[in-house]
Design goal:
Largest sheet: 4 strands, mixed
Strand order of the largest sheet: 4-2-5-6
Shape: elongated
Radius of gyration: 20 Å
Number of helices: 8
CATH architecture of the largest domain: Orthogonal Bundle
Structural class: alpha/beta
Helix content: 55-70%
């Protein structure tokens, strides 16, 4: 099964649980703490991904995050029991997308070959807001390999307006 499918399934379950408890923002904040530790501490990440016993992992999680609500601890324990720790970062990412979507916010990844002026970013944002009828928060990624053009990952779509894509498209048309 694809990583994204597994991550989506777990994040949707967590989202439903948080919604039932009316604690979406609280859950998101706790998950951001966990995400920060995962991304900033190789020691913690290696520990979580190691073949250490599940019981020890759970005890350490409980000690590191004593402020987490019981149901969030139980969710993390389920991930440990199912040996899905390597999906945790993606689960958190998917959960954040779900909470933003519920608030009417979409956070597309916009790839450009250079650092753009604010005017260009505002035009991209306004255009996407008109298309999707939601608030857009752009995650800018500078990709010098693009040479020119733009790529946008939004929800489950990739809008590829890069020169490379168009050149490859022309090449295929000319060879067929």
């Amino acid at each position: 099964m694809l990583i994204s499918a597994i991550s989506k399934r777990y994040s949707e379950a967590l989202f439903m649980l948080a919604s039932e408890k009316d604690s979406l923002t609280e859950f998101k904040n706790y998950l951001i703490l966990l995400e920060n530790l995962l991304t900033q501490s190789k020691i913690f990440k290696n520990f979580l991904l190691s073949p250490i016993s599940k019981t020890i992992k759970k005890e350490i999680i409980k000690k590191i995050f004593p402020e987490f609500p019981l149901f969030l601890h139980n969710f993390i324990y389920l991930i440990i029991d199912k040996r899905r720790e390597n999906y945790l970062e993606n689960i958190i990412l998917e959960f954040k997308k779900l909470t933003e979507s519920k608030k009417g916010i979409i956070s597309p990844e916009v790839y450009l070959p250079f650092s753009p002026q604010d005017e260009l970013l505002n035009k991209i944002k306004e255009t996407l807001e008109k298309i999707y009828h939601k608030t857009i928060q752009i995650n800018l990624r500078i990709d010098p390999d693009l040479i020119g053009g733009i790529k946008i990952k939004i929800q489950d779509k990739l809008i590829d307006g890069s020169f490379k894509y168009h050149l490859n498209f022309l090449k295929e048309k000319m060879t067929h």
